[in-house]
Amino acid sequence: MDSTRGLDEAGGRGPTDWLGGWKTLFVGCAALLAANLFLWLFDYKYAFTIGLNSATHAFTTHYRALFWAELLTNGIFCGLWYGWLIRTGRALENPQAAPREEVRRIAVLWGIIGATSLSLYIEASFWPNWDGAWHQTMVRDTALTPTHIPMFYFFFPLSVVLALGAYIYGRYRIPALYSPDKGFPWSFFLLISAAVLEFMQVAFNEWGHSLWLSEEFFSVPFHWPFVAYGWLASGMFAVWGESILRLYQIEKSAQASEEAPIHSAAAG
Amino acid sequence: MASTPSALTMSAAERQRRLELRDLLNAKYKYIDRTWDVVFWVTAIFIVAGAADITKLLFAGDWDFWTDWKDAQWWPVITAFATIIIPSALQWIQWVAWRFPTGATYTCVCLFLASWIGRYFQWHVAETYPLNFVWPISTVPAAIILDWLLMKTRSFVLTSLIGGATWAFMVWAFNYIPLAPFLQPAVFMHHVMTVSDVQGIGYIRSQTPEYMRHIERGALRSFLGETQYVSLVFGGTMAVIGYWIGQFIGRYLAVWPIGRFIKTI
């Protein structure tokens, strides 16, 4: 097997080197973990002091400021990233990439999907645990509670941005898989709708809590729609599946192109 | 070499398919290497853990958060239903992709890690509840048996009927070991109750009405424990239903969409 490790002839990294095609995965996950660590430490420091009473000035300067900062961060990141993906993607559109480059792009796609997976875990398991603990012990006097602000207003929209960004990346850069003339892939439809429905469920959740304030059960029926996103996110496995099949096609064509001169020489 | 009966009865198509799979396995690849395996199995942990935990948290969370909620009537029923759904989905995915009878175990190990991270950092460190009040259950031993059943029967119907029906009992039995110390009798303010009841009263959940009453209510303690076994049988029934919900997720939301497109938007 030809090695794809180390620096290649051109001095670059191979498509499946950890610092080559997989770099996106590490950079994306590191950024997510850093953001999550910051938000957890913020809550750890302020939740039991400033976060208890939403009517105070300190709550506005800390938690409402954090809420707006999160929305702005997500919005700016989304605008810059999508803008870059579309602008540079249009320049690449149509011509099929060389096999080596296409493999690298699939690795980058897996990197974005891996970061989306981490974001979904953080919003579906890490923060809901604190949310459950917080709301079963603390009085809820606002929709912007200390645990909601990181979970609902940072990681929920971020997952939508990442899932849709992964599709935009594939649409422009891996046309053999996600060319627009094929239609819209079911895999991304499920994955993106999972993230979008989750965000819409936040609205229903807050409405429900304003209506049924008296008891705080975590397994209450109006929480159940949150579960649907975890199920719909199974579309991620379809993204992995169809890109693996594409890798096999690339391998096959690479082998065929290597064997072709030998056959033609033998025939000659 | 003597031919086995299965080899004799194997159809030509099946033999051809096996040869193709063997070729795929032994082929020399230029771009497909172990990094794809590592990235897939590691990054899938997050989505699997997230999906399994949100399903458990929102269907059965309260019964998993506290020792005094781990009662004889609801806990075996709700928990059995909620915890088998995603393991079942992963059983399908890993079985059709690799013939690995490991999907349930993989899921439950992911869920175990996610539950403990959540319980330790959020409930214990951030909210200062003692871990012996808020420890999560483990479904790993039950999942190993569920995977073993799939490996032996090679049938999802049999796995659902046998494994699903016994899932409630297995989850209860394996978690009864850490729960038992909290079911010992204790006298608190001149009342006989369990240690877990004392925990529920001592560590106030002020946003719920639950700190004002015993969770395990009514006739449950006067039926000589029979309710427990009735609950386990009903829990098994619910787990069979949960198993097929998981199969739907695995078959139609994870595998079916591969390479399919919506033509008109």
Description:
- Chain A has eight helices and one strand, in the order H-H-H-H-H-E-H-H-H.
- Chain A has helices at residues 23-46, 57-92, 99-135, 148-173, 175-178, 186-211, 225-232, 235-267, and one strand at residues 184-185.
- Chain A is elongated, with a radius of gyration of 23 Å.
- Chain B is mainly α and 265 residues long.
- Chain B has a domain at 36-179 and 225-255: Ammonia/particulate methane monooxygenase, subunit A (particulate methane monooxygenase, chain B, Up-down Bundle), CATH 1.20.1450.
- Chain B is built from ten helices and three strands; from the N terminus they run H-H-H-H-H-H-H-H-E-E-H-H-E.
- Chain B has helices spanning 5-9, 12-26, 34-65, 75-98, 103-126, 131-134, 140-153, 156-179, 195-202, 226-255; strands at residues 185-188, 191-194, 261-262.
- The termini of chain B are far apart.
- The interface between A and B is large, with 81 and 72 residues.
Compact overview of the structure:
The complex is a heterodimer of chains A (268) and B (265). Chain A has 268 residues and is mainly α.
Mean of residue pLDDT values of chain B:
89
Span between termini of chain B:
58 Å
**Name given to the CATH architecture of chain A:** Up-down Bundle
Kindly report the spatial arrangement of strands forming the biggest sheet of chain B: 1-2
Residue share in helices of chain B? 55-70%
> What is the helix tally of chain B?
10
Strand content of chain A: under 5%
Report the major sheet of chain B: 2 strands, antiparallel
Summed up, the domain count of chain A is: 1
Number of helices of chain A: 8
- Mean pLDDT across all amino acids of chain A: 89
> How far apart lie the N and C ends of chain A?
28 Å
CATH architecture of one domain in chain B: Up-down Bundle
The CATH superfamily of chain A is identified as: Particulate methane monooxygenase subunit c2. Chain: C
The biggest sheet of chain A amounts to: none
- By DSSP, the count of extended strands of chain B is 3
* Secondary-structure element pattern of chain A, one letter each: HHHHHEHHH
Residue share in β-strands of chain B: under 5%
Q: What is the CATH first-level class name of chain A?
A: Mainly Alpha
